[in-house]
């Protein structure tokens, strides 16, 4: 600084001004770089994850889509949610000592956008694990398994021997936008036409479209078909003897929310090992033919008898 002052003292007024301007410019540039770096770092750290938000608020916000008659239902008068996966979600939150809020009803094709927009933390209706959604969603441990079958009108025998003939423009499949019926039709029967309904439509409309001849058939899980046949006996039939596909039912969080998934899994595995999830499902579905139980990861061996 002394040396610098000596230089300044010998320079002309113009030179002094030039040096002052240069110094001020350098300081401004340095401050700008420091502020930008700090701002960027702060911005990243300030972007709260779903896990951090849940831990801070002690609240778990669930999104859901309706799946009657037993998985997720809403009372039209009170708005109260009921069903197998409603009870499981509430038991999970209780085990984690978290308040559960049913934040938003959404569609099967739009719940990922709602998760991305932070409108809820976890999708608490049953999701069928598949590769296409797995690019965006992280699934919790399976809670039960569901079979998918093919359904047609009662007297329709065209597909009894071979489902592959469905892959033809002369046939039309009933589908719901973004739902598994749509994915199966697009992937395995791309040449078939689709008669699609919106995501928030009553899912029983799929079977009604088959029943009334608007569509030739639909890929669906058995509880919906059973409920429809009880209300409309003698109208539809199940073509497939063995399931066309079998899917695990899981809850879902955004891909990358590993801490949140691990926390949920800890509670769900505890509930599975305690037998609580089996008891919840059995209360709604005693024969367990719709939501099939998860196989235990061990073989029980009785302890040596006490002396």
Report on the architecture of this protein.
This protein is of the alpha/beta class and 307 residues long. It has 11 helices and 12 strands. The chain has helices spanning 2-10, 13-46, 50-57, 84-95, 111-116, 131-134, 180-188, 205-211, 222-231, 258-273, 276-284, and strands spanning 59-64, 73-74, 81-82, 99-105, 122-128, 137-139, 144-153, 172-176, 193-197, 218-220, 236-238, 245-254. Strands 1, 4, 5, 6, 7, 10, 11 and 12 form an 8-stranded mixed sheet that branches. Strand 2 (73-74) and strand 3 (81-82) form a beta hairpin. The protein is globular, with a radius of gyration of 29 Å.
Overview features:
alpha/beta; 307 residues; 21% strand
- Write down the secondary-structure element order: HHHEEEHEHEHEEEHEHEHEEHH
Oligomer: single chain
Count up the helices.
11
What share of residues are in beta strands?
Answer: 15-25%
Question: Unreliable stretches, pLDDT < 50, 5 or more residues?
Answer: 1-12, 32-45
Number of strands: 12
Class by alpha and beta content: alpha/beta
- Could you tell me how far the N terminus lies from the C terminus, measured between alpha carbons in angstroms? 91 Å
- Residue-averaged pLDDT, rounded? 86
Q: Any idea what the radius of gyration is?
A: 29 Å
